[in-house]
User: Fold Cysteine proteinase CG12163 from Cacopsylla melanoneura.
Amino acid sequence: MNLCVSLKVLLIFGVSAVYCEKITYREAEQIFQKLLSSEEELQNDFQSRSILSEPVLRFTTFMRDHDKVYDSEDELFQRNENFIANVDLVEDISNDDRGTARYGINKFSDLSAEELQQRTGLNWMGINKDHFGSSFREENNSTERINWKITEPEYLDWRDKGVMSKVKSQGECGCCWAFSSVGVVEAMNAIARNDLVELSVQQLVDCDKSNDGCHGGLMDTAFDYIIKSGGVESEADYPYLGYLSEDGCQVKEGNKKKKYGMEKYTRIPQGGEEAMKKWLAQHGPLSVGINARGIFFYTGGIIALSEVGCYPKAQNHAVIVVGYGEESVGDRFGKTIPYWIVRNTWGEDWGEKGYFRIKRGNNICGISEFVHGVEVKKEEQQTQNVNNKRNEKNTPWDYLDC
Assistant:
């Protein structure tokens, strides 16, 4: 029996209490306890009550563990309904995955499908195509900056080099496209300058009119904006709000705030995961699009969803690939599973401290469909600082001259 349907039936009989204050897990337990007790009287069926008690306890425990507070009983019941649907989705995803990934209850478990979609933002619709620069022209699809003769290291993680800033949360603003594009520009400037400066995502949300702020966008057009505008201000100068500023774009002509730019970007050919690996080793992190449908409730491990569970042509989220590796997993999967290390924008309390790993080589969730590498402006490169790193063993710094 569906708990939410049962509760709604009970409401018709007037057994629901009215709570004027916000509902914490303790108040929720009282509400559900009264409803369940009333149902037991109506049905006189102890077994039915026992079946219903387990999902109620699971939901109120979720509320407690994630500090969930709701405004009304109506919201409480709707959140419980969302929770039940998402628990079912977790079971479906877990059964589909053939990697080592784990899925479970997390901070998103009471959200509706529409609310989950707000946590993404890679949007192919509604983009002002009049602002397209060189985004979709073939000359941007070149891999001429890859040296195919070099053997890259077996393991690489740009976090180890101090060029990745702290994982952030985009909140309910669908601007993953801005986080992904700015994050790669940020990392590439850190590699070239040996100095990590956090850059402004909010600038693109407010100022990049080729994209649609919190309603979605594309990395191509974001990179075009960064090039044309002369760069991105620092996060300190233009901090993230999580919504479109009512005051509009705060980048003013003639101001003396420092900007951090880029020279050009390259589209890695679709399905080119070997090219992705070499770019990572020879240059730096990559901005990529993925289908996020199957990863909202990820808690750890290596994702290996099928095309049915995570269709590769339905990218709706932008992230950053920061490295790769292999993990020994036993005979069931062969000797190892190769994987990508990916930074997300859902906070450090999601996944593996804000990151996830996904199987490499099979275009899982479309990770190799929409991939961009960035090169910073030549005048900003400081070769001497990079050379100071080259004495370190088995690091990607060895490949920056390619």
User: Anything to note?
Assistant: The chain has ten helices and twelve strands.
